[in-house]
Structure formats: structure tokens, C-alpha cells
Automatic annotation (TrEMBL):
GO terms for molecular function: magnesium ion transmembrane transporter activity. This is Magnesium transporter. SMART domains: CBS (SM00116), MgtE_N (SM00924). InterPro entries: CBS_dom (IPR000644), CBS_dom_sf (IPR046342), Mg_transptr_MgtE_intracell_dom (IPR006668), MgtE_N_sf (IPR038076), MgtE_transporter (IPR006669), PRC_barrel-like_sf (IPR011033), SH3_actinomycetes (IPR058838). One of its GO terms (cellular component) is membrane. It holds the Pfam family MgtE_N. Keywords: CBS domain. SUPFAM superfamilies: CBS-domain pair, MgtE N-terminal domain-like, PRC-barrel domain.
Length: 421
């Protein structure tokens, strides 16, 4: 069900299922109370199971009535994907323990659904680093959750469920999790993935997660972040910890961050990124397009190439100009980029105000503008997303916005093995 589209009776799309909410019952399997649905605007709302008229293959049909208030978890409610998947359980027959990897729900009456089966993976039986342990199906009464004090739940299955999410969507998902679970998942994410997610979070949440990481891990994550985002994050930490993390970072990455920290946040220097595409005037159109095609390159940085004299790392040699990718497309592959420079685009200096940078981008329909120092050496570029981050309110990432929404077999909850009945 994770990711299934939710429709109203007329077939209009309302949103997507992001989790399923259950409540525990004495001596009975948990009862489903509703769905957590992501509607336009990235807002997550609660849809009561009583509003669901059909759960089919790849789609959920509702009555169309929906309360668009942001979902808030109540006491006693448990999220299946966020909290149950990855939990350790022991088998009631004494045959050992396992980890819950998926959950099946089954309709028990009109508007009544409950947990019917668990998909559990037992520990590996060999010492080989490859492969996984055997899996079994079990009913709720055939297992017992391991709830020892201080024992954390595995976050591996939850991370696998969220694996195909874009960083911004994963950031919103983590912010919706209970605090303890959020920090647990953050600690389990790979460095590069966590860096991407942190870049999409409000600064206060970035700091909260960063404060839970040891210095070595925190420095590794900062190495993976864009220098301007890393600088903004370090600026929010205590001066002592910020300096300690800079010492632990890769020297080249730390130097970029230190340079950015020297500029006021409301200037071009404070907004810019220090990793634009930089080439010599003798580079060809073919070489430029090859650099733009790199998968890891942000779209705004790929919109234009900077041409400078050597050296080609900020601060570079004298800045010569920029070549827009659309212009490169109009010329043969062997054409030299030095002859395609946009003569009408002047760089800004590092102390240019953010307001002036915004005016330039808007006036000339640009997605980036180069930044030079007093010696006309390129030190970075300000992209349109940098400016938007500055202009939008501090809480824009968690802002709900105005959203107007009209309002007999088991289904698996997460993306994993099908639980058939």
C-alpha cells in the first residue's frame, strides 16, 4: 500500500498513502484506524478507515471527504511503516527471534481492518557476509515484541521503504516521524543520503540531527553537503563544535566552507556555492556538454559554464565570462568556449547585497550569476535556488500552504514480499 494513489469516487486523485495507522488491543491483533495520506503541497493528513470504500491493486478509493488539517499522532496510535517495520520480535513457540519486514492487513467487516499476518526474517544461520536469513509468515499472536528498555528498533527496513524518495520528500517524511525514530533513521542513512536530506530541512532540525552525531560522522556528512549548505549549518552550531568539525573535514571542503563563513549571509558571498563548472577558454563545446551531463550536478549549476584563466579552482585566475548551455547546443562540438562567452552578463562582487543579486536574476531571466573578488577572480556563483532559500520565510520547508481537497483480501503495507491470502 505504501505509495498507492488515493482517489475520490469520481476518479480524481487526492494523494498518496505514506503510512498506515493502527492501535493495539488486548489479546487481539492491532486494529487499523486510518491512513496517512500525502496531499498536494506535501501536507500529510489523516484519512479514517471509515472513509475508505475500496482497497484495490495499486489504488485506494475513498468517499472524497477529507480533513486537510496536518496529521498529528495521538497517544496509543502506532505507524506501521515508521514504527513497526524493523521491530525485533521473539516467537511464542520458543523457536528464536526475527525482524518484522512487512505487515498484512485484512478486512474483518464493513469498514473494519486489522493486522492479519507479519512477514518476519529470522537471523542468518551462516557466518557468510552475503545473503540474508530465512523468512516466515506469522500471525500477531505467534510473536512477542521485544521491548526491553533502551533497545532501539532497526531502521534498515524503514530506510529501504523510503529508498526511492527524493531528498525533499524524505526530509518531510523524517520530520513527520517521532523524534526518537527520526534520529535513529538519520543515524542509519548513508553519509551522502543524509547530506542530501539535511539540505532540505529547516535549520533547527538540521542542528538537532547534527547534535546527535559524533564529530567524525558529522564531519563526513558535511563533506558530502554543498559547501554553502554546510557553511549555513556550521554557522548554527556552537563556535567550538563548528571549529572542531572543520578540522575533521577534508581540507579542500573545509577551505571552501571557511571562505563562505567569512561573508555576511545577506551578500552574494554568503549565498554563493563554490562548486560551479569551470573550464579554460580552449575547452570545446563537446567537453562542456560532457561536464553538464554529470548526474550529480544540480540543474541550476548545469545551466552555464564559467570560463577563467588558470587556476580553475575558486579563487580562480581572472574570470573571462559564462557560456550558457543553450548557446553551446547551437554550435559544433569542436567550437572553443572562449568564443561563445556572453558579453552582456557582468559578474557581481562578493559583497553585493542579496537584494541586488535577486534583482539581476529577475531582470535578465537568469538561473545563476557569477561572483568575483576584488581582483576579478571567480569565487563562486549564486543560483536561483540559493536566492529563493534566502527570500522565503525561515519556516517555508514546513509551511502547509493553502490546499483545497474535495474531500475481502489482505494488502501488504510496505514495498516488499506480497502477503497473499
Amino acid at each position: 500500500m505504501a505509495g498507492c494513489t488515493v482517489f475520490d469516487p469520481a476518479g480524481d486523485r487526492l494523494g498518496k498513502v505514506r503510512d498506515v495507522l493502527v492501535v493495539y488491543r488486548n489479546n487481539e491483533s492491532p486494529r487499523l484506524v486510518g491512513l496517512i495520506v500525502e496531499i498536494p503541497g506535501k501536507r500529510r493528513v489523516f484519512v479514517s478507515i471509515g472513509r475508505v470504500t475500496s482497497i484495490g491493486s495499486g489504488q485506494i478509493i475513498t468517499t472524497g471527504l477529507m480533513n486537510v488539517r496536518r496529521f498529528e499522532q495521538r497517544g496509543g496510535e502506532v505507524r506501521v511503516i515508521a514504527e513497526i517495520l524493523g521491530r525485533k520480535v521473539t516467537f511464542a513457540d520458543g523457536s528464536g527471534e526475527g525482524t518484522i519486514e512487512d505487515v498484512a492487513i485484512e478486512q474483518s467487516g464493513p469498514g473494519e481492518w486489522s493486522v492479519s499476518q507479519l512477514f518476519v526474517r529470522r537471523p542468518k544461520t551462516t557466518a557468510s557476509p552475503f545473503g540474508k536469513g530465512p523468512t516466515v509468515f506469522a500471525t500477531w499472536n505467534e510473536v512477542r515484541e521485544k521491548g526491553q528498555t533502551g533497545q532501539s528498533q532497526s531502521a534498515e527496513q524503514l530506510i529501504a521503504t523510503y529508498g526511492d524518495m527524493k531528498p525533499a520528500d524524505l526530509a518531510n517524511t523524517l520530520l513527520d516521524l517521532p523524534q526518537g525514530r527520526r534520529l535513529e533513521v538519520a543515524e542509519e542513512l548513508p553519509d551522502a543520503r543524509l547530506a542530501d536530506v539535511l539540505e532540505e530541512m529547516p535549520e533547527s532540525d538540521q542542528v538537532e540531527i547534527m547534535n546527535q552525531l559524533d564529530d567524525t560522522r558529522a564531519a563526513d556528512v558535511l563533506d558530502q553537503m554543498q559547501p554553502d549548505d554546510a557553511a549555513d549549518l556550521i554557522a548554527q552550531l556552537s563556535e567550538a563544535r563548528g571549529e572542531e568539525l572543520l578540522k575533521l573535514m577534508q581540507p579542500e571542503e573545509a577551505d571552501d566552507v571557511r571562505m563562505l563563513l567569512a561573508y555576511a549571509p545577506d551578500t552574494a558571498g554568503g549565498l554563493m556555492t563554490t562548486e560551479p563548472i569551470i573550464v579554460s577558454a580552449d575547452a570545446t563545446v563537446a567537453e562542456g556538454l560532457a561536464l553538464i551531463r554529470r548526474h550529480e550536478l544540480a540543474p541550476a549549476l548545469g545551466a552555464a559554464i564559467c570560463v577563467t584563466l588558470p587556476p580553475y579552482e575558486p579563487p580562480t585566475g581572472r574570470f573571462l565570462g559564462m557560456v550558457h548551455f543553450q548557446r553551446m547546443l547551437r554550435y559544433p562540438p569542436h567550437e572553443r568556449l572562449g568564443g561563445l562567452i556572453d558579453d552582456g552578463l557582468d559578474p557581481v562582487t562578493a559583497d553585493t547585497s542579496a537584494a541586488e543579486v535577486s534583482r539581476i536574476l529577475a531582470s535578465y531571466n537568469l538561473v545563476s550569476v557569477p561572483v568575483v573578488d576584488e581582483n576579478h577572480r571567480l569565487v563562486g556563483v549564486v543560483t536561483i535556488d540559493d536566492v529563493l532559500d534566502y527570500l522565503l520565510p525561515d519556516d517555508w520547508r514546513s509551511h502547509d500552504g493553502d490546499v483545497t481537497t474535495p474531500a475481502p483480501r489482505a494488502r501488504r503495507i510496505a514495498n516488499g514480499t506480497q502477503l497473499a491470502h
